[in-house]
Amino acid sequence: MSSLGLLCFLLLHTGAQGFGILPGESLNHLEITERAILNTAVQAQPFTAGAVAAACGAPKSAKSFRKAIRFITLMNIRVDIRHALNASFHFDEEMFVQGRKIITEGKMAVKASNKQQNYEAARQKLGEIFHPLQDFYSHSNWVELGNKQPNSNLIRSDTSIGNIAEESRATCRNCDGDDCRNNILEDIIREGVLTSGYFGIVPLVSTKPKGKCSHGGAVDQTSTIEPKGGINKDSFDASHGHLHTDAANMAIAATSGLLEDIRGDAGDRPFLEMIGISKGSSKALCFVIDTTQSMSDDIAAVRDVTSLIINSEVGTEDEPAAYILVPFNDPDVGPLIKTTDPKAFKDILDTLSASGGGDEEELSLSGLQLALSSAPSNSEIFLFTDAPAKDKDLKSTVIALIERTQSVVNFMISGSTVVNRRRRRDDQQQKHSRISSSEAQLYRDLSQASGGQTIEIAKSELPAAVSIIIESSRSSLVTLLQVARNPGKTDDFFFIVDETVTNPTVYITGRSVTVTLTSPSGESQQSSDTTGSLITSSQSVGNLMTLRIKKEAGRWQIKMVSTNAYTLKVIGQSSIDFLFDFVEASQGPFQGFDALETRPRAGVNGSLLVSLTGSDTAKVTEVALVESSGSEIKGVVESQGSGTFLVHIDRIPTVEFVVRVKGEDGVSPRASIVFQRQTSTTFRSSNLTITANSNSILTPGTPFSVPFSVMTNGTGGNFTIRANNNKLFHSTSPTSLLLEAGKSANGTVTLLAPLNTPSGTDVTLTIEAEAPGGKDTNYVVLRIPIINTVTDFTQPVCELLSLQSNCTENCSLTSWELFVRVTDGVEGTGVSNVSLKKGNGTLNTSLAAGNENITMVSYFSSCCSPEMELRVVDRVGNVGTCSYSFRGGSQAALSFSTKVTQSPLLCLSIVVLGLHLLTELGIQ
To answer: What is the pLDDT of residue 704?
Structure first.
């Protein structure tokens, strides 16, 4: 493989922590996971200079790539926090069969999710199964048995894992004091018997069978029971720490092998999209459209703007990663349509028509719920309607999804009475208005929560208003400032434009607002002044004012004067941005931080994990939680290395707030750039704690239970419980729980997916708890993969029909060809695709006449390229390879099928190269 290619992806390096879970000299789960992803990402590129240069020249994917790796590694770490004592997740206590089942079932879920383009569900499950796969090499005696390559059978369910020790068989002796290097019995090593250590943390209760090995370490109480000591290789100072590097490198190679298997099934582009790399923008273009009778003008405007975006951005760095459409009517919502093909999306929009409706209210929030739960996180969503919401009860669910996904929602409300009152000459339009100002407030609340705009316009203004969609579809947008005032008041706001920011733009919504801008150099200009130099262009449509300002680095001031409610947002384009999660310290036996899936607790201390993107030299100097009133609570910033920072906050606000990050980028104080970024999303805290966990896979037709618990730190009482799922699956759950202060109560949500639910889809379940009187709410959002029962665990096989050549010493004038039959067996699901993994010849495939389960393959190549390798995949993702070659006039037909398509020695050499480059870059 190309070392330059690996170097390019290492330049997109992501921060990592923990094999334990915190930083240290030993390799940990985050570093192992990250390096394996980098290895496989490079291999997914064709090995040409142009392809590598394109990969290195794709900074628009840097943030999404880093975010994907960060999410996968956090899911990996979560296993240690939430399943610390479940031996199956760690291959402890000789739970080899159970551990492999977690990996193989999870792998099927990842592959099925990729086929449905549900990449976030794939990432979540991928992180979960990486953990046991990596722990196998640290917790078992695989390395001690002298193995030099990973156990490929861990990702296969149709083969033997190995010669597993019987429960009654002794495997260890006492360590020699602190020296445990020879504590595994000689007959276990000689016979190649597989064992792992037992683990327990409760004194006097933890035990193990006679003669068995322990995990080892200060926490493990079984290590004090004979045979004493342990065999884990988690760190250099572990019981078998002398083998830590071997185990860690084996884990990297095994993780790379699993990723290569998944890549083989998905194909290069979907695999890269799963790990956050796309050829254009990482953002999706997402429309939620009311298709009732009065919306024909809006649908036409969406068609026009989509055509404009597609025609101007396809093939550029701003091309959307996906196109999403959610139509809603009454009583129907959906179906959600998602594609990466711009022409197909245009064709879909061309078929969209306005019909039905009849009453004043429509199911707008149901459509938005479906979009938020299906679009990638950090998406920009545009909802078009001219009607109030019928499903107002979904407001808290939608806000929960906005907070979890940090997506921006913009509402295009055409024909509202707010607009019509300013156009009284158009009596006919006012007569037919469907939405009042008070009804539009719901949409304003939701857009404000997400950092979007509620644009209220006449139907005739739609073409001008949709220009905001074009601006918002640009890649690398960052938020410099976002505030709202309701009721309106005179206020001064400040924002920083740094040298990396281009196209700074101000968006203002509201009526009768006077705006004065002051540049860092002291020059001022009002928005109504057309002669100043600060505002390079402006546009007003409906209640939206857009000001494009000149680029001048430094601290800007903007003065807002109005007694009416208004919103203010300042954005620009820059590679420097940040990611963050609210985290909490583990309460279990392992130290570490787990990302919150709920609102943080109000009024007490809390923590955030912040990562910078777009620069290897940038650092965070300040993180503040900015309340809606403008008050700030600043945190204490601790660098974790590699652009990641842990921030401790003394008090989480009890009111709405945003997260603001300030930092510096530069090699010296004099040459440094001072930057400021802010979340678009507004966050809330809560005195309620709600927890639920579902690592299982939902099978259609089988009831699926999700236990949850709720606790209040405030006043007790009867708390309302709501459970909503985006697929509208049949569900049951309690409607209320009686809580006492400081105590928890439990409930269960049961879901039932129809039998015809496609494999690879997922369902987003939102469970909410609301205090009496609606004074406080909290939620937990779960993404649950759906997989149909699979009985096919064998990969397709190849049968060589013929291999011929006329090769001579002058290879350029001669050629060779072969014909192969690919089948999936009598019990198989059928061949899905056949592709060329290695070789420079021409590959052709066709279905056998009269039998669609057989694929016929022909391959033609110059004799200068004497080797080829096929990748063959069946319909449930089993991957095999078949290799053939013609050398020196002798035929060498090497046909085999295996799920580990990457040479372990190659994996290990990649690891060594990666470690060397990391050290050279100063990242180690």
So the answer is: 93
